[in-house]
Amino acid sequence: VRKAAKKQAAGARAPARAAVLGAGIMGGGIAFSSALAGIPVRMKDIRADQLDLGMTEAAKQLGRRVQAGRLSQARADAVLAAITPQLDDAGLDAADLVVEAIVERLAVKQQVLAALEPQLRPDALIATNTSSLRLADIARPLARPQNLVGMHFFNPVPAMPLVEVVRGPQTSDAAVAAAVAYALAMKKTPIVVADGPGFLVNRVLTAYFNAFNELVAEGVDFTAIDRAMEAFGWPMGPAWLNDVVGMDTGAHVGDVITAGHPKRMRAIDANPVHRMVRAGRLGQKSGAGFYRYERDAVGKPR
Ligand code: NAI
């Protein structure tokens, strides 16, 4: 796949300077992966606590690599220094590519990107990390829709090799090539996919999550489903995966993809993930979802 990707990069260069909007679960990981690849990155959020979280996570990742002897302390310091956390728009006008990793709401993404675009160089690219929305819709308020491309990373970003590079109906070949080159520079495995609700991986995953939600709504114990799917060979069962993804994000993504493929997927009555969102149990990030988590706990929830 990487060989095919090198062809798709068509000699394009990875950005020399990047920026990420959002320092949450995904934005923090993308900024870290960019800095680790030697590409300096500005990381903007509207919340200082989220910026702190993003920097703390990056420092933790680097600490682990130093401890394992995979990185020198000097290199780790340089990687951390290559991430500039900020609440304002400083330096965005110098970015070659800005990755958007904010909340999964079409209207919010449209509004934020329309406000961002005039601050960027005319040739700068915007890569959205949306997991379910169509690029055609996100691009609607943009003056330069040819510069919008999808870069759908997976969670946790530093560990997951796959990146879906999404070609929207107006995305230019140059934008696709640059996104592929950026993913390759981060040592990821990019695949170019067409625009459509859920692209490839999440479309497959939504059918799986829908079956899981249906079983739980019918009264099957979610821990039994997790144990079964883990014994089947998945690294984590669907309840645990929901907790890691974030219940609000997962619920919204599931709704958008289910509605986008009405002939193949149907909405689940008494959807347990919706109930969890209403109860504020957003998964690992809020301390409880299907399982409960100690603060900052990572790894298996039992
Ligand atoms: P999150 O809730 O952890 O982080 C979102 C961040 O965006 C928050 O820190 C928030 O303060 C910030 N934000 C909101 N408005 C902003 C603005 N105007 N400017 C800058 N920052 C702003 O969400 P998460 O999970 O990182 O998701 C972000 C995007 O990534 C969504 O589109 C989601 O669908 C997608 N995604 C999520 C995955 C997951 O497993 N959680 C996997 C792949 C994609």
List the helices and strands and how they pair.
Elements: H1 2-9, E1 18-21, H2 25-36, E2 41-44, H3 48-67, H4 73-81, E3 83-86, E4 97-100, H5 106-116, E5 125-128, H6 135-138, E6 148-153, E7 162-167, H7 173-185, E8 189-194, H8 201-217, H9 222-232, H10 238-245, H11 247-260, H12 272-278
Parallel strand pairs: 1-2, 1-4, 2-3, 4-5, 5-6, 7-8
Antiparallel strand pairs: 6-7
The structure holds 1,4-dihydronicotinamide adenine dinucleotide (NAI).
Description:
The chain has 302 residues and is an alpha/beta fold. The protein has twelve helices and eight strands. It has two domains: 2-194, NAD(P)-binding Rossmann-like Domain (Rossmann fold); 203-286, N-(1-d-carboxylethyl)-l-norvaline Dehydrogenase, domain 2 (Orthogonal Bundle). Helix content is 44%, strand content 13%. It has an eight-stranded mixed sheet with strand order 3-2-1-4-5-6-7-8. Helix 2 (25-36) packs across helix 3 and helix 8 (201-217) packs across helix 11. The model has no long low-confidence stretch (mean pLDDT 95). It binds 1,4-dihydronicotinamide adenine dinucleotide. The site of 1,4-dihydronicotinamide adenine dinucleotide (NAI) has 27 residues, from helix 2 and helix 11. In the central section; belongs to the 3-hydroxyacyl-CoA dehydrogenase family. In the N-terminal section; belongs to the enoyl-CoA hydratase/isomerase family.
